[in-house]
Amino acid sequence: MPDLSFLPPGMPSLGALGPVVAIVAFSALFRGFTGFGFAIIAVPLLSLALPPLLAVALAAGLQLLGGLMDLPQASRACHWPSVRWLLAGALLASPLGTLLLAWLPADAARLALAAACGAAVLALASGFRFHRMPGRGATMGAGVLSGLFNGLAAMPGPPALAYYLALPLTPAQVRASLMVFFAFSAMASTASLVAIGAFAWREVALVLAGLPLMLGGSRLGALLFRRAGGAHRNVSLATLALVALVTAARGISGLLGG
């Protein structure tokens, strides 16, 4: 056996590394195509092979580094007016979401989130779209919902995704705007993990080891987007629907004592 004593303590076993590699690569590929979804896919799957808090830290760190590297290009194509107000609302509401989580039972919160996701899917699938760009109030309202989702379940994506899919923007603008939004969101979530001591040398080592997979998968996903960008909306809607179903299932299972 090779001497691994130089590694930080608490590293995953060699048997867990294979699934982790596959999960990170697939999640990065999906992120590169859609502009979102890395944590939505990676965290639940990584939690099957790693302790949940380590799974969250690994996903947040990779999302942060990947987002920072994509930020220069994405910032040129994104719709900055909406991104600014969306981020403002999210930053204001995240603490409120955390307070709600302390008051509302976790499974009831999951059902509320699932209902909101499901309503967004039904509205968007029916063809709902803004015919012109909404005002600052509506954009900040979507950001507030994202912040509440983040505080309640560390999942700011569904409201932001539903908002951007309803805008009169091109798929390239939607994808770039989501990438910028999640890059800044990852900064906030990683800072929170550092503050509570959940992001130390072990997490840094895992993030750096996974970075080539994150970059390679994202680049391949971006290539697929350029070749099949027309499928962006359908793939995004299907993912939002899946998030709603999985979240509802977890909430119902918890309430029933499963």
Top keywords for this entry?
mainly alpha; globular; 10 helices
Compact summary:
This protein is mostly helical. Helix content is 79%, strand content 0%. Helix 2 (38-46) packs antiparallel against helix 3 (52-77) and helix 5 (106-125) packs parallel to helix 7.
Describe the structure.
With about 260 residues, the protein is mainly α. It has one domain. It is built from 10 helices and no strands. Helix 1 packs parallel to helix 9, helix 3 crosses helix 9 and helix 7 packs antiparallel against helix 10. Keywords: Cell membrane, Membrane, Transmembrane, Transmembrane helix, Transport. InterPro entries: TM_pro_TauE-like (IPR002781), TSUP (IPR052017). Its main location: membrane. It is found in: Cell membrane. Belongs to the 4-toluene sulfonate uptake permease (TSUP) (TC 2.A.102) family.
Order of helices and strands: HHHHHHHHHH
Q: Low-confidence parts, pLDDT < 50 over ≥5 residues?
A: 1-6
Whole-Å distance between the termini?
Answer: 40 Å
- What amount of the residues lies in strands? under 5%
What percentage of residues falls in helices of 4 or more residues? over 70%
- Give the structural class: mainly alpha
Largest β sheet strand count, sense and barrel closure: none
